[in-house]
Design brief:
The chain is mainly beta. Strand 33 and strand 34 form a beta hairpin. It is about 5% helix and about 45% strand. The longest helix has 24 residues. Strands 2-3-10-9-5-6 form a 6-stranded mixed sheet, with no helix packed on it.
Length: about 450
């Protein structure tokens, strides 16, 4: 055989072995390998594929316990934190159809079991007795806490508590085993249907503990209870502790604004912003606050960064009418009793458009219902309005002070005859523009069935 042929053959063998190893690492447990334990209870934890482990076993008290594998011909090796590449063979006894290894020390370790056909299975053994945590009390660390976060001190029964369980992959990479400690307490959550904050129970899970744990600060006074971990819980002796009642200073609010919509067919729309439009812009501002909020205030400004205030309203609900042209800004502030914690709402932008006022010069009342049968001005952002209409002899036919209103061509309940009438308007826009308008109104007559024009002469 030529050298090149040999090289190709060895290369093919190498590639096949590499592929088989990659498959075994990528799919741990694919061969259904499991360990069983004697002399101590054990909990199996599924391992992520990237660890190369078939399973992780947490043994209640590993010293003196036995590990059994369902093969009489399997060989065993043991490895530490550097990974399976540094495994050392260990003696396992044959008991029936099983091989059995007796644990002699209390340290966590890795086990690799090789079947007669060369298939290898990797496991990590955790001795829970060296990781058991018993805590006696919870206290509050106000020095490190702020308006958003609360730090809770976990007080152990001894000074040598091992809070985190670290295990190692087959490549010696450290990972943390999730112990699933549970912290329970009450807080407040905004209820959209009730439009108020209501109490809710909350759970926070921790994969391990530290001397102090961080939690989102509760929005109401509450006690904290800590329990775990999940292994001791399954075995029936999980630790637990309850804190004193925590008096919260955290402040939160939920705010919203609703604009009153008008359906005036002669008012020009101006929707530059969702809350803006033609003046007057009438908006209801509402805030729901949490328990610790003692100071509440809606703040109105012409400046988006609220360098100064135009008005301040010491209330949670506010109805306000914007009657001046320009862009306005409204926000809500809530503070606790000593002012150490504040909440500021999103800023609401309100744009009030410039004014316009246009008067038509003709209409035809009674001609066709709903079609040019009412004389109305076309307007936008008119905040003061006064209109008087006269006939040719100076008799006042009608007066009105709302620009959305109009004249239906009647006087004393009857249509006036066709002809020329006169209007006089005094008005003021949101932008300060003053209107002094006067002009003609031409009523266009129509023919009835007898050939006579509609309307009667107004004396």
């Amino acid at each position: 055989m030529c050298c090149n042929c040999c090289n190709r053959s060895y290369k093919n063998i190498f590639l096949k072995l590499t592929a088989a190893l990659a498959m075994a690492v990528a799919a741990p447990g694919a061969w259904g390998a499991d360990l069983s334990f004697g002399g101590s209870r054990a909990i199996a934890v599924n391992a992520e594929a990237s660890t190369g482990l078939d399973k992780i076993y947490v043994v209640e008290n590993a010293v003196g316990a036995t590990i059994s594998y369902p093969s009489a011909s399997a060989s065993w090796s043991k490895w530490g934190n550097t990974g399976a590449a540094y495994a050392e063979p260990v003696t396992a006894t044959v008991e029936g159809n099983n091989t059995v290894y007796r644990i002699a020390d209390n340290e966590d370790f890795g086990i690799t079991v090789e079947d007669a056909d060369g298939r290898m299975h990797h496991f990590r053994i955790v001795n829970y007795a060296t990781h058991n945590v018993e805590f006696s009390d919870l206290s509050f660390n106000e020095e490190d806490s702020d308006c958003m976060s609360l730090y809770i001190n976990v007080i152990p029964l001894s000074q040598n508590e091992n809070y985190a369980i670290t295990y190692y992959t087959i490549n010696g990479v450290p990972r943390t085993l999730d112990r699933q400690y549970v912290l329970r307490y009450s807080t407040l959550a905004y209820d959209e249907n009730a439009k108020a904050y209501n109490p809710v129970d909350k759970e926070v899970h921790y994969e391990s503990l530290n001397d102090a744990i961080r939690v989102e600060k509760p929005l109401c006074d509450t006690q904290f209870s800590l329990s775990g971990d999940r292994f001791a819980d399954e075995w029936g002796y999980a630790a637990s502790a309850v804190s004193p009642t925590y008096i919260t200073n955290a402040v939160e609010a939920y705010t919203y604004a609703e604009k009153a919509e008008r359906d005036n067919d002669n008012e020009q729309k101006d929707d530059a912003t969702p809350l803006g439009g033609s003046a007057p812009v009438d908006i209801s501002f509402v805030a729901a606050v949490t328990d610790a909020a003692q100071f509440t205030e809606w703040q109105l400004s012409k400046s988006p960064d609220f360098e100064s205030f135009e008005l301040r309203f010491n209330q949670t609900e506010l109805d306000y009418s914007f009657t001046e042209y320009g862009t306005w800004y409204m926000r809500f502030q809530a503070s606790n009793a000593d002012g150490s914690c504040d909440y500021f709402s999103p800023v609401y932008e309100i744009f009030v458009g410039e004014s316009k006022l246009v008067c038509p010069n003709a209409f035809s009342p009674g001609a066709s219902e709903g079609v040019n049968d009412v004389w109305k001005v076309s307007y936008k952002s008119i905040v003061d309005f006064e209109c008087h209409i006269f006939n040719r002899w100076g008799t006042k036919i009608i007066s009105f002070s709302d620009p959305s209103q109009g004249w239906d061509g009647k006087y004393n309940g009857k249509l006036v005859p066709p002809g020329v009438y006169y209007y006089v308007i005094k008005a003021r826009g949101a932008d300060g523009h003053k209107y002094d308008l006067s002009g003609d109104i031409n009523i266009i007559g129509f023919r009835q069935g007898n050939g006579q024009s509609s309307g009667s002469e107004t004396e």
